[in-house]
Amino acid sequence: MFRLFSVVALALSLSAASVPRKAPAFSMSLADGSKVSLSQYRGKVVLMAYILTTCSHCQAVTGLLSQLQTDLGPRGLQVLESAVEDDAQHHIADFTAHYKPSFPVGWSDRADVAPVLQPDNKLHIMPQSVLIDRKGTIRSQFYGDDPLFDGDAAKNLTALIEQYLK
Q: Cβ distance 123 to 52 under 8 Å?
């Protein structure tokens, strides 16, 4: 039994994202044709979310992140969101018009997302987010089904973000 537990624990640790780690270069395209890069927000705490525009859980997370941006943005939080499905660029305008996020939403290819998210064998699970501190270090990575979203997700996320806003 102990061996089975050890094997399972090892497998989980090997498939988990390693944090902290330096945030790699990443940029996304916006509906207006401009680009936004993580490096533009150096000195801010960045919550970078990757979504599918048609995913109901991703849509709900967008609403939650909009509230966090409104509440914590003045203290140094910057939320960014990038759609990663095929032809995402054709869905962004409608998505932003419908959900009215209070932060930039764009799109990127999954190949461009892979260096940010670890391990890359979980790129099919959406939404995924990384929390990056003011110095450009990824401090946390989580999926939409993370225990962080159990109960009061806004309170849980705020508590996590607050650690890096200080």
A: no
